[in-house]
TrEMBL record:
<dbReference type="InterPro" id="IPR050959">
    <property type="entry name" value="MarA-like"/>
</dbReference>
<dbReference type="InterPro" id="IPR018060">
    <property type="entry name" value="HTH_AraC"/>
</dbReference>
<dbReference type="GO" id="GO:0003700">
    <property type="term" value="F:DNA-binding transcription factor activity"/>
</dbReference>
<keyword id="KW-0804">Transcription</keyword>
<dbReference type="InterPro" id="IPR029442">
    <property type="entry name" value="GyrI-like"/>
</dbReference>
<dbReference type="Pfam" id="PF12833">
    <property type="entry name" value="HTH_18"/>
</dbReference>
<dbReference type="InterPro" id="IPR010499">
    <property type="entry name" value="AraC_E-bd"/>
</dbReference>
<feature type="domain" description="HTH araC/xylS-type">
    <location>
        <begin position="8"/>
        <end position="106"/>
    </location>
</feature>
<dbReference type="InterPro" id="IPR009057">
    <property type="entry name" value="Homeodomain-like_sf"/>
</dbReference>
<keyword id="KW-0238">DNA-binding</keyword>
<dbReference type="InterPro" id="IPR018062">
    <property type="entry name" value="HTH_AraC-typ_CS"/>
</dbReference>
<dbReference type="Pfam" id="PF06445">
    <property type="entry name" value="GyrI-like"/>
</dbReference>
<protein>
    <submittedName>
        <fullName>AraC family transcriptional regulator</fullName>
    </submittedName>
</protein>
<keyword id="KW-0805">Transcription regulation</keyword>
<dbReference type="InterPro" id="IPR011256">
    <property type="entry name" value="Reg_factor_effector_dom_sf"/>
</dbReference>
<dbReference type="GO" id="GO:0043565">
    <property type="term" value="F:sequence-specific DNA binding"/>
</dbReference>
């Protein structure tokens, strides 16, 4: 089973559990990657965050349950995992633009969101430069911040983490400790399924640190390394291209490990960077 088939298998798991509990870790297991990498792949390929897709699928089915029936709203809310009717009403209106009780009447327009199927379309695009490197584990020192389990929230919060590190002089302090490879300021998303997700602003260093800083060991791994330049937005664009253009035909797939961003200059509007993605050779289909 190749990775596209595994992604579709994960989507089938979602469909089978829309009235139960959907475990993001289980989705990652089906796709043979972490919950973090599954959410990234899904959002980039499907063009919609995973949490939003699940909400729209639930509300699409909830509207059908309510339409022209005498079903109680509180029962339909509970069916799709909403303990609070208020939360259900809010989610329903965010999708359909009307409240749940109104759809019981004929003539009320609602929206349908069918389940997606992922396919890869090959198209002509710009070339992508990359290299594959296997590296031993290395120690980083810096400051860490908690990450949300729904990664779209992190797109808003990570820039604030960098701003905080600048304002409290953490960035200046850790740069002075940089003495090992890779030589650059690092943004490390440590998002293993069995630990709290954290984002490290750090450098690679063997120096001793005081209790104002933390250390973390980036595990030994094979990395697909992509160079880039531009703003923070350009990094997200590069990551999207990695998932939608490079990964499907590369012969590699995500493996368990952190994502690493290496920044070679401090200008946030015109930085030079590398994106490191943990990979393994693609498993043969059986």
């Amino acid at each position: 089973m190749d990775w596209i088939e595994r992604l579709n298998e994960a989507i089938r798991y979602i469909e089978e559990n829309l009235t139960g509990e959907i475990e993001y870790e289980k989705l990652g297991q089906i796709a043979c990657c972490s919950a973090y990498h599954f959410q990234r792949m899904f959002a980039y390929i499907a063009g919609i965050p995973l949490a939003e897709y699940i909400r729209k699928r639930k509300m699409s089915l909830a509207a059908v349950d309510l339409q022209g029936s005498d079903a109680k709203i509180v029962d339909v809310a509970a069916k799709y995992g909403y303990a609070s009717p208020t939360a259900f009403n809010r989610a329903f209106q965010s999708v359909h633009g009307v409240n749940p009780s109104s759809v019981k009447s004929e003539g009320i327009a609602i929206k349908s969101f069918p389940p997606i199927t992922i396919k890869i379309t090959v198209k002509g695009v710009e070339e992508m430069n990359y290299r594959i490197e296997t590296k031993e584990a290395f120690r980083i020192v810096g400051r860490s911040f908690p990450l949300s389990r729904e990664i779209e929230q992190n797109f808003l919060e990570v820039p604030q983490m960098w701003q905080s590190a600048v304002l409290d002089d953490t960035l200046e302090k850790i740069i002075s400790l940089m003495n090992c490879e890779p030589q650059g300021v690092l943004g490390v998303s440590a998002c293993s399924d069995d630990e709290e997700w954290r984002y490290y602003i750090a450098v690679s260093s063997s120096a001793e640190i005081d209790n104002s800083l933390e250390e973390y060991t980036v595990p030994g791994c094979t990395w697909a390394i992509f160079p880039g330049a531009g703003t923070g937005k350009s990094i997200q664009e590069l990551e999207k291209r990695i998932v939608t253009e490079w990964l499907p035909t590369s012969g590699y797939e995500f493996t368990y490990g952190p994502d690493v961003e290496v920044y070679f200059n401090p200008d946030p509007q015109n930085t030079v960077y590398e994106v490191w993605i943990p990979v393994r050779k693609k498993r043969e289909a059986f």
